[in-house]
From TrEMBL:
Organism: Nakamurella flava
Domain JmjC intervals: 138-285
Annotated stretches, region: Disordered: 1-41
Lineage: Bacteria, Bacillati, Actinomycetota, Actinomycetes, Nakamurellales
PANTHER family according to UniProt: BIFUNCTIONAL LYSINE-SPECIFIC DEMETHYLASE AND HISTIDYL-HYDROXYLASE, MINA53 MYC INDUCED NUCLEAR ANTIGEN
Protein name per Swiss-Prot or TrEMBL: Cupin
Record carries keyword Iron: yes
Length: 448
């Protein structure tokens, strides 16, 4: 096992004899200086080299350190000022933040209090308590920023679309010379994006390869502790603009250096082969023989025979999965990504005003990150979004197909409809939050 590096750092432990291990590919070559011109520009901000090389050689296989992954840094995504604003003026409540010190999570009462007059809540962030905790060496964790901080809502949605897997984003703010959490592994992949300060990361090989959500590190504390005593795969100090990719399972810990460190952890919750297998196994519920009760009073020998018979029956069922079941599994998997990714925020009052004043000259486009789908139902079509559906006459199908491609279009250019029908459809889609007004220079969202 090795770690891919695209710049200088301290590599300790096993030699990088990649040719001796066919499971480990050659290092990803350096790419253009920060250019984000590929089909996956958001992923490109987090790595060096091409995204195709990353997908083939690195994704889910090995860590990758990229000094100055984005030469411009990540200040457009997050900053120290953003931390202060979220803590001081946004009224955050748990679980949107937590604090930890020396590997242990702090009690919520140490950084929250009542919401004040007229409020019944007791877990609103208290900025003075957060200040005291930071001064004492605690790490502040701002959670689910992909839902609460606008630049990261957009970044997370685009990254999820490019990766094809749901994304969450947390920020970690650690005082100098402090460690928030002890060595552990995650059950999701992460991109670490260093925002401010510096932090030393120490990476060890997995004790369990590609762990699933029900295989957390705290069930393997002894093995994790023992592995953390071994020579690391990688030890490197991340500075602003640096990025580190860690597949799930790799042990890691991090210590802030001489300044307050701020980094984003972009967690990628992968859709795995096990997820697909579970969906397919659900097909077995349609087999009446597998639904039958086991014999009365069965003993161990009978149970063993029943297990073998069920396995054979299941294998036979899976070998003959109808195409409609395959298609349904594909659809449920895509629905999971849709449900787990927040689409572009919309302003309700502005949407209503836009619908009321809409003209044929106005341009509209699909709301970014929505990923709706269309199905035909006789002389109607159904437009499915995150948790809603909209049934419309089939005559609007060409217009919907154009909008679902992500292309911004003038209302008057919606195909297959007369002027009144164009306005009726566009206003309905605006009121449903499915499309937004598009400025003249808007090229539209990335659609996957």
């Amino acid at each position: 096992m090795t770690a891919v590096q695209t710049g200088a750092s301290e590599l300790t432990g096993r030699p990088r004899a990649v040719a001796a291990d066919p499971a480990v590919a050659a290092p990803v070559p350096a790419g253009p200086d920060g250019a984000a011109t590929e089909s996956r520009p958001t992923v490109r901000r987090c790595i060096s080299g091409s995204t195709d090389d990353f997908a083939r050689d690195v994704w889910s296989r090995q860590p990758m350190l990229t000094p100055r992954a984005d030469p411009a840094g990540f200040a457009d995504l997050f900053s120290a000022d953003a931390v202060d604003e979220l803590v001081s003026t946004r009224g955050l409540r748990t679980p949107f933040l937590r604090m930890a010190r020396d590997g242990s999570v702090r009690a919520t009462s140490t950084f929250t209090r009542s919401g004040g007059a007229g409020a019944t809540i007791t877990d609103q962030v208290a900025d003075d308590k957060v200040l005291a905790q930071l001064a004492a060496g605690s790490t502040l964790v701002l959670q689910a920023l992909h839902r609460t901080w606008p630049p990261l809502v957009e970044f997370g949605s685009r990254l999820a679309a490019e990766l094809g897997h749901p994304v969450q984003i947390n920020a970690y703010i650690t005082p100098p010379q402090n460690q928030g959490f002890s060595p552990h592994y995650d059950t999701h992949d992460v991109f670490v994006l260093q925002i401010a300060g510096t932090k030393r990361w120490t990476i060890h090989a997995p004790v369990l390869d590609a762990p699933l959500p029900d295989q957390p590190w705290d069930r393997r504390r002894a093995a994790v502790a023992a592995r953390a005593e071994e020579d690391p795969l990688l030890s490197a100090v991340l500075a602003p603009g640096d990025a580190l990719y860690l597949p799930r399972g790799f042990l890691h810990s991090a210590v802030a250096q001489g300044d307050v460190s701020i980094h984003l952890t972009v967690g990628v919750h992968p859709i795995t082969g096990v997820d697909l297998a579970r969906e397919l196994i659900a097909v077995a519920a349609g087999d009446p023989e597998l639904r039958r009760s086991l014999p009365m009073g069965f003993d161990a020998d009978q149970l063993t025979a029943a297990v073998r018979a069920a396995a054979a029956r299941l294998a036979d069922d899976l070998a003959r999965v109808p195409e409609e079941n395959v298609a349904a599994t594909v659809q449920r998997t895509q629905d999971r990504l849709r449900a787990d990714t927040r689409p572009q925020p919309i302003a309700p009052l502005a949407q209503l005003a836009a619908a009321a004043g809409l003209t044929g000259a106005d341009r509209i486009r699909l709301r970014e990150g929505l990923r709706p789908r269309l199905t035909d139902r006789g002389d109607r079509v159904v437009l499915w979004a995150v948790d809603s559906s909209l049934e419309l006459p089939a005559v609007v199908r060409p217009a919907l197909d154009l909008l679902l491609s992500g292309t911004p279009v003038a209302v008057a250019d919606l195909p297959g409809l007369d002027a009144d029908e164009q306005l009726v459809l566009a206003r309905r889609l605006l009121r449903e939050g499915l499309v937004v007004l598009s400025p003249a220079d808007d090229r539209g969202p990335a659609v996957s």
